[in-house]
Design a protein that fits this description.
The complex is a heterodimer.
Chain A lengths: L1 H9 L7 H22 L4 H20 L3 H18 L5 H27 L11 H15 L8 H7 L2 H11 L1 H10 L7 H19 L4 H22 L2 H32 L10 H4 L1 H14 L6 H11 L5 H27 L7 H7 L8 H19 L18 H21 L13 H14 L12 H21 L3 H16 L1 H7 L1
Helix pairs in contact in A: 2-3, 2-8, 2-12, 2-18, 3-4, 4-5, 4-8, 5-6, 6-9, 7-8, 7-11, 8-12, 9-11, 9-12, 10-11, 10-16, 11-12, 11-16, 12-14, 12-15, 12-18, 14-16, 14-18, 15-18, 16-19
Chain B lengths: L3 H22 L3 H23 L1 H6 L4 E4 L10 E4 L1 H24 L4 H20 L3 H19 L5 H32 L4 H7 L5 H19 L7 H8 L2 H26 L2 H6 L2 H21 L4 H21 L3 H28 L14 H4 L1 H15 L5 H15 L3 H25 L7 H10 L9 H20 L5 H12 L1 H10 L1
Antiparallel strand pairs in B: 1-2
C-alpha cells in the first residue's frame, strides 16, 4: 500500500500548463457547488460528497503522469458525475454510464497499446497510429465529431449545476490529455479536420435550436471544436490558444449553465421565445448571460476573443485562412447573438423599464450563493479578457503578444451588422422546439434504419432489446455449438478410445507440424 | 510416525460404519453423532497444524505413518507434505460446512445419506494422504460408487439416468486407472509413489507414453475436461444441493490433487514435456474452459449452468497448472481454494432458493430474490465473486491466474480468463434480474402450480441452511480482503510440488 501511495505522489507533474488548468478546474467546481446549494434540494450531503470525489479525481487526471492513476481517476470522475445525474433521472444515469464506459474501453485499449510500445508515462507520443487510437479513445468522453451524439441529450437533461460541471470541465479533460500527448511541433491533421467539422456542424445545430439548454450543449460541441482544431494545428501559440480557450470556455459555459438554471426557475420553461422582460426581472443574471455569450462570440475584451485570436494567429497566414476563420467566427457570433436577440430584443417592451426594475417583479428569489457563482464567472471572463498571461510563468510570453484589438473591434462590428441584418430579415431564425432529442429516439431511429433496409418500419421496444434480441442471439449461437458437440451418450463414450488413440499417436502427429 | 494422519481417515470411516447401529438405538441421536464425527476430524487437523507449526513456518513439514509397521517400498504408508496438508484442510473445512448444511437440508433417508457422505469424506482424505498408488485407486473407486449413489438419491427418473451415466463414465475411468496401476506394477514391481517416481525414467519410452496416456484419459474423464464433459452438468442438476456442493466443491478438487500428484510427483513433468503432451494438454484445457463458458450461456437451468461454469473454471485451473511455473501454481492453487468455496456456496444457496420452485429452470427463478431477500443477496455476492469483482476472493485468484498466463506469454490463456469473466457477467446477470422480477399469478398458473407439485417441500431446519450460506459468503468476503493469508500455505505446497527429490527422500528414507 505504501508503495502505491509513493508511486501515486511521485506521478504528479507540476510543470507546463497543468497547474494553471487544475486551479481553474477548482474554481469552476467551486462555482457549481455554490450554484447547487439552492438548486439541489434532496440528499444534499450525497451531492456534495460526489462533488468532492469529482474534484479530487479531476485534479489527479489533470496532474498525473502515470497511466494507471490517470485511467483510474478518470473512471472516478465518470462515476461521480454519473451519479450526479440521478438528481434528474435514473434513465440518464444508465445511458451516461453505458456510453462513458464504452468510451473508456477504447481508451483503456489505447493506453495499454501505448504502454506496450514503450510509453510507460503519459508524455509526448510520436507515433501517429497511437495518437489516432488515443484520440478515438477520448472521442466518446470528450464529444469529438460523430461521437458527440450523446452530448446534447444528456447535457440538456441534467440538473443545471451538473450540466455546468459536465459541459464546463469534464469534457475538457480529454483535451487536457491531448495537450500532454500530441507533440507541440507537429500537431495532428486528423484532429484539425475533426475540429473543423465539429465547429461547423454543431454551430449549425446550435443555430437551429429553440431550447436554451440544447443550444448551449451544441455550442459546447462547437467550441470544443476550436480546442481540437488548435491542438491539431500544433505550434506554441496554437497550444497557448487551446489552453486559453479551455479556460475561457470553461468560465463562459459554467456561467451560462448556472444562469440557465435560474432562467428555468424564473420562467418555468427553457424555450427562448418565451423569455419576457428579462432585464427588469433578473438584472444580474442578464448581465452574466450577455457577458458569457459575448465571450463565446469572441467580442473584444472578453476571454473568448484572446483565445480565438491566438488560435487564428497560429494558422498559416493567407487569404483562405482569413476567410475561413472569419466565417467560423461569424457562425459563433450568429448562434450566440440569436439567443441574446430573442431574450433581450425581439418583442420586448422597454417603455416601462425603470418602473419594472424598481418594482422588482419576479418568480424566483435569487440567493447569495447564485449571485456569488455568477459574479465569479463574470470576473473570470473579464480577467482572462484583460490579462491573458495570467499568474505563473507558463503563458508569460503572451505579454509581448499583440492581440490586434482594433481589428477585433472592426470584425465584431461587421459581425454585428451582418447578424442584425439576418435576424431582422429572417425573423430571428425562429424554429420549432425539437421533441426527439433523446438517446432512446436515436437508438430507435438507427434500428428502424437498419431494419428498414429490408422491411417496412417496425416499432422496437428499446428496453427489451437486450432480453429479446441480444440475449436470444447469444443463446441460439451457443445452443448450436452445444448441439454440435453433444450428439448422443453412446457417441460421447466413443470419445474415450478416440482420445486415447490421439494421445498415443500424438508424437507422430506432432512431428508433422 | 504420527498416528493422527491415520485417524484422519479412520474417524469418518468409523462414523460411517457406526451410523446404522446408532439408528438402531435412537434415530434422533444420529445427527449429534454425525456432528461428533466431523468435529473430531476438525480437531485432528487443527491439532496437526498446531503441533507442527514451527516446521510449517520453516517449510520442512512432513508427516508419515507406516501401516502395520512395514517400511515404504514394501508396505503401505501414509504421507502428508505441504500440498496434502493444504488440500486436507480445505477439503475438511468444506465437508464440515456441508455436513451442517445437510443436517438442515436432508429430511428423509438421513441414515443412508450420512453413511455415503462419510464414506466420501474418508475416501477424499485417503486420496489426499496416501503415498501408495494402488490405495489411490481404491479410494477413487470408493468416491465414485458413493457419489454415484448420492446422485441418484432423489430416485426420480432423471436422477437415476444421470447416476447411471455418471457411473458408466467414472467406472470406465477407474478401470483405465487400474490398468495404469497394473502396468506400473508389472514393469517396476512396486506401488509406492516415491519408489515409482525414482525408477520411472528407466522405463522404455513406449511404455512411459502408454502409462501416461492411460492415466491422463482416466483423470480427464473424472475432472470433466473437454471431450468428456457432458456427464458433469447432468449429475450436478439432479443431485440434492449438498451433494452437488460436495461434487463440485470437493470431488473435482480431489481429482485435481490426484492429477498434480501423478503428473508431477509420480510420472514427472519432464516425461510429459519429452512426449510433447504438455502443450496439447494446456490447449485442451483452455478449449474445455472456453466451451464450458460457452455452453453455460445456453443453459436454461441454474444448476446445469453452474455445472458448465465449473467446467470452465476447472479447465482454467488445469491450464494454469500446466504452465509448470511458480506463478502458475500460485494462481492455480489459490483458484482451487476460491472456486471450492464459491461453487459450494452457490450450490448451497441454490438449495435454499429453489426449495419452493417446481424445477431448476430459468422461468421458475422468477421472484425468488423477492421472497428470500437476504439469502439472495448472499447468492449475488457469490456470483460476483465468480465473475471476479475486486474486493472478493474470486478476483484475487483470477488476478493471479491472469498474471501467470501473461508472465509465461500464453495469451490464449489470458484471453480465456477475460472471456470467462465477460460471459459470466452475461449468464449470471440474467438470473439476478429474473430473481427480482415480480410474480403475477394467473388462474392457469395457479392450477398448474397446484397440480404439478405433489407436496410442498419445506426445509427440515431452515435457519441452519441459510446460516451456512452466509458462512460461505463471509468466507468469500473475508478472505477476499485478506487473501494474503494464503501466502504461506501456498508457497509451502508449491515447494512440495516442485521439489520431487525431497519428497522421494522423505518417503523412502524417513
Amino acid at each position: 500500500m505504501a508503495v502505491i501511495w509513493q508511486q501515486f505522489l511521485a506521478s504528479f507533474q507540476f510543470d507546463s500548463f497543468f497547474p494553471l488548468l487544475a486551479a481553474v478546474g477548482v474554481i469552476l467546481t467551486l462555482m457549481t457547488a455554490l450554484a447547487a446549494w439552492n438548486y439541489i434540494r434532496e440528499n444534499k450531503f450525497w451531492y456534495y460528497a460526489l462533488t468532492v470525489v469529482y474534484l479530487l479525481s479531476t485534479l489527479v487526471v489533470v496532474l498525473t503522469r502515470d497511466w494507471f492513476f490517470f485511467l483510474f481517476a478518470w473512471e472516478m470522475v465518470t462515476l461521480a458525475t454519473t451519479f450526479m445525474l440521478a438528481w434528474s433521472d435514473w434513465k440518464l444515469v444508465r445511458q451516461y454510464f453505458v456510453i462513458q464506459f464504452s468510451g473508456s474501453s477504447i481508451l483503456l485499449f489505447g493506453a495499454l497499446a501505448a504502454n506496450a510500445f514503450g510509453y510507460t508515462e503519459i508524455g509526448v507520443i510520436d507515433s501517429v497510429p497511437l495518437q489516432f487510437l488515443l484520440i478515438m479513445g477520448i472521442g466518446m468522453k470528450s464529444g469529438l465529431f460523430l461521437f458527440h451524439f450523446w452530448l446534447p441529450p444528456i447535457h440538456s437533461e441534467a440538473p443545471a449545476p451538473v450540466s455546468a460541471i459536465l459541459s464546463g470541465w469534464v469534457v475538457k479533460l480529454g483535451y487536457i490529455f491531448l495537450l500532454k500527448i500530441i507533440p507541440m511541433e507537429t500537431g495532428n491533421t486528423f484532429l484539425f479536420l475533426l475540429g473543423l467539422a465539429m465547429i461547423v456542424y454543431a454551430g449549425w445545430q446550435a443555430l437551429r435550436s429553440a431550447d436554451l439548454k440544447i443550444m448551449l450543449a451544441y455550442s459546447t460541441v462547437s467550441q470544443l471544436g476550436f480546442i481540437a482544431l488548435a491542438i491539431g494545428t500544433g505550434g506554441q501559440y496554437a497550444f497557448y490558444g487551446a489552453v486559453l480557450h479551455i479556460i475561457a470556455h470553461g468560465f463562459a459555459k459554467t456561467t451560462l449553465f448556472i444562469s440557465s438554471g435560474i432562467w428555468q426557475k424564473e420562467y418555468g420553461t427553457r424555450i427562448i421565445y418565451d423569455f419576457k422582460d428579462a432585464v427588469s426581472r433578473r438584472p444580474l443574471t442578464s448581465a452574466a448571460t450577455i457577458l458569457s455569450f459575448a465571450s463565446l462570440a469572441a467580442v473584444v475584451f472578453t476571454a473568448g476573443y484572446n483565445s480565438k485570436y491566438l488560435i487564428k494567429s497560429a494558422q498559416t497566414p493567407g487569404l483562405l485562412t482569413a476567410a475561413v476563420f472569419f466565417l467560423l467566427g461569424l457562425l459563433s457570433f450568429l448562434y450566440a447573438g440569436r439567443v441574446l436577440y430573442w431574450i433581450f430584443i425581439k418583442d420586448q417592451d422597454y417603455s416601462t423599464f425603470f418602473a419594472d426594475l424598481k418594482q422588482g417583479f419576479n418568480h424566483y428569489q435569487i440567493y447569495t450563493q447564485d449571485v456569488l457563482a455568477l459574479l465569479i464567472g463574470m470576473l473570470g471572463i473579464i480577467i482572462v479578457g484583460f490579462w491573458p498571461e495570467m499568474p505563473g510563468e507558463v503563458l508569460s510570453s503572451l505579454v509581448e503578444k499583440d492581440f490586434h484589438l482594433l481589428t477585433g473591434l472592426r470584425d465584431t462590428l461587421i459581425y454585428l451588422g451582418i447578424s442584425a441584418y439576418l435576424f431582422y430579415n429572417h425573423s430571428g431564425f425562429k424554429v420549432e422546439a425539437r421533441g426527439d432529442l433523446s438517446l432512446e429516439n436515436y437508438l430507435q431511429l438507427f434500428l428502424n434504419f437498419l431494419y428498414g433496409l429490408s422491411r417496412k418500419s417496425v416499432k422496437f421496444d428499446t428496453e427489451k432489446i437486450f432480453e429479446t434480441f441480444f440475449y436470444n442471439a447469444i443463446f441460439n449461437a451457443s445452443k448450436r455449438v452445444h448441439d454440435f458437440v453433444y450428439q448422443d451418450f453412446t457417441i460421447q463414450l466413443l470419445w474415450i478410445p478416440i482420445f486415447m488413440t490421439l494421445l498415443l499417436l500424438w508424437q507422430q502427429i506432432y512431428s508433422y507440424f | 510416525m504420527d498416528i493422527k494422519i491415520l485417524f484422519l481417515i479412520l474417524v469418518p470411516l468409523a462414523t460411517a460404519f457406526l451410523i446404522p447401529f446408532i439408528d438402531l438405538i435412537n434415530a434422533k441421536l444420529r445427527r449429534f453423532f454425525v456432528l461428533l464425527g466431523i468435529l473430531l476430524e476438525s480437531y485432528l487437523i487443527i491439532s496437526i497444524i498446531i503441533n507442527n507449526f514451527q516446521s510449517l513456518k520453516k517449510g520442512d513439514f512432513f508427516l508419515q505413518y507406516y501401516l502395520g509397521g512395514w517400511q515404504p517400498p514394501i508396505g503401505i504408508s501414509l504421507a502428508m507434505d505441504g500440498l496434502s496438508l493444504l488440500f486436507a484442510v480445505i477439503t475438511a473445512l468444506s465437508l464440515f460446512l456441508i455436513v451442517i448444511y445437510s443436517i438442515g437440508y436432508i429430511g428423509h433417508h438421513e441414515g443412508k445419506y450420512y453413511v455415503l457422505y462419510f464414506l466420501i469424506t474418508a475416501a477424499s482424505m485417503g486420496v489426499v494422504l496416501t503415498a501408495d498408488i494402488f490405495n489411490i485407486y481404491v479410494f477413487i473407486e470408493m468416491l465414485t460408487i458413493t457419489s454415484g449413489a448420492l446422485i441418484g438419491f432423489k430416485r426420480s427418473q432423471e436422477a437415476s439416468a444421470a447416476a447411471i451415466k455418471y457411473l458408466i463414465y467414472n467406472v470406465l475411468a477407474g478401470l483405465l486407472f487400474f490398468l495404469g496401476v497394473l502396468l506400473i506394477y508389472f514393469n517396476l514391481g512396486t506401488l509406492n509413489m516415491a519408489d515409482i517416481s525414482r525408477n520411472f525414467a528407466s522405463l522404455k519410452s513406449g511404455i512411459q507414453l502408454f502409462i501416461s496416456a492411460i492415466f491422463l484419459t482416466a483423470i480427464l474423464i473424472k475432472m470433466g475436461i473437454f471431450p468428456f464433459l457432458f456427464w458433469l452438468p447432468k449429475s450436478y442438476d439432479t443431485a440434492p444441493s449438498p451433494v452437488t456442493a460436495v461434487l463440485s466443491g470437493v470431488l473435482s478438487k480431489v481429482y485435481l490433487y490426484i492429477f498434480i500428484r501423478i503428473f508431477w510427483t509420480v510420472i514427472g513433468f519432464e516425461t510429459l514435456v519429452s512426449l510433447n503432451l504438455d502443450i496439447l494438454l494446456l490447449n485442451l484445457a483452455l478449449v474445455s474452459s472456453f466451451l464450458g463458458h460457452l455452453f453455460a450461456l445456453q443453459s436454461n437451468n441454474i444448476k446445469r449452468l453452474l455445472g458448465y461454469s465449473s467446467i470452465g473454471h476447472i479447465g482454467m485451473i488445469l491450464a494454469v497448472i500446466m504452465l509448470n511455473t511458480d506463478a502458475g501454481f500460485y494462481g492455480g492453487l489459490l483458484h482451487i481454494i476460491s472456486h471450492m468455496f464459491m461453487k459450494a456456496g452457490l450450490f448451497v444457496a441454490c438449495g435454499y432458493l429453489l426449495q419452493y420452485t417446481r424445477s431448476h429452470a430459468y422461468r421458475d427463478f422468477k421472484g425468488v430474490g423477492i421472497r428470500n431477500r437476504s439469502v439472495f443477496i448472499a447468492f449475488i455476492l457469490l456470483l460476483l465473486s465468480m465473475i471476479g469483482m475486486p474486493p472478493l476472493l474470486g478476483f484475487a485468484s483470477k488476478w493471479y491466474v491472469l498474471m501467470a498466463f501473461l508472465e509465461s506469454g500464453s495469451y490464449f490463456g489470458a484471453f480465456i480468463v477475460i472471456f470467462g469473466s465477460l460471459t459470466a457477467v452475461i449468464y449470471y446477470l440474467r438470473y439476478i434480474a429474473k430473481g427480482f422480477e415480480e410474480v403475477k399469478l394467473t388462474e392457469a398458473d395457479l392450477k398448474e402450480e397446484i397440480f404439478s407439485r405433489p407436496l410442498l417441500s419445506v426445509l427440515y431446519r431452515e435457519k441452519i441452511v441459510s446460516f451456512i450460506t452466509y458462512a460461505y459468503t463471509a468466507i468469500i468476503v473475508g478472505f477476499g480482503l485478506g487473501f494474503r493469508f494464503f501466502d504461506l500455505p501456498l508457497r509451502m505446497s508449491i515447494k512440495s510440488v516442485m521439489d520431487v527429490e525431497k519428497y522421494i527422500e522423505l518417503v523412502l528414507g524417513g
